Amino acid sequence: MTEQPTDHLREFVVSLPKAELHLHIEGTLEPELMLALAERNRIDPPFPTVALAKAAYDFGNLDDFLRLYYAATDVLRTAADFEDLTWAYLRRAHADGVVHVEPFFDPQSHLCRGVEMSAIVDGIVTGLRRGEAELGISWRLIMCFLRHLSEAEAFETLTAAEPYLDVIHGVGLDSSEANNPPSKFAAVFAAARGLGLRAVAHAGEEGPAEYIWEALDLLLVERIDHGIRAIDDRALMKQLAERRIPLNLCPLSNQRLQVVPDLTAYPARQFIEAGVPITISSDDPAYFGGYIADNYLAAAAANGLSRDELAAIAADSLTASWR
Ligand code: ADE
Ligand code: ZN
Description:
Structural class: alpha/beta
Number of helices: 16
Largest sheet: 7 strands, parallel
Number of strands: 10
Bound molecules: adenine, zinc ion
Distance between the termini: 42 Å
CATH superfamily: Metal-dependent hydrolases
């Protein structure tokens, strides 16, 4: 059988050393592992079969997805569960040529179910250390605050994380964006920075360009997760380019959550032409139909990105990382 050009391009993409900077560890929970953990923990799984789980992964918007994503996390109960989740992700990332990861985790979605911070952090970090030892993947860990909850609850989460600050390197902001602007979390981000934590935030996924400005000016973030809506604001594009603030793009996520009408409208090329640094990641790969190499290929197909451009994106991901 003759090899197709996309196979060659995949090999090329996989060969590029790259960092995955926008990845929710809970979003790597494949249905097979979800069912296995439900059995191990003797609980009813959110879906009875892999096929029914996959059939439910049909989302009209971010909130549709988040409902299902939080429901699925119910199977994560023990440190061993978080370790297995992390290790399973790292093996897939390694196969795609990832050499450095900075996963997010959402402690509030577990603490509210009675899971201890120690089980969450110890499990993830044990998985990350195994990945470093066996696969050579370096890492930093980012704790996200859920923006649909209050800032007071984010402060409680920060306090609960204080014993673990040797293995948590930054804070992020995720969950339902509409009507939950970055400004709501300015004080808790200032407190986190005061503890030596670095900062990133989701902004401009479903929210407006104004939320990207707020993330930059009020949360003092170093990178923006998604940031797609920056294309609506020329002054913002200029600022991102001048300050070399990267946008961590996730094309398959944006397609599946209908953030863009379809991938032909994907703005990666506009960012490149405006000099805005971009990286490519997979966001929640178990739900959106692909890991990091698939996301590179989706952006390449949508925007006609050349091999040199793909290599530059991979190089920028390492530059933008906290290695
Ligand atoms: N949590 C997990 N995935 C997310 C996304 N794409 N946007 C906001 N919060 C998230
Ligand atoms: Zn995300």
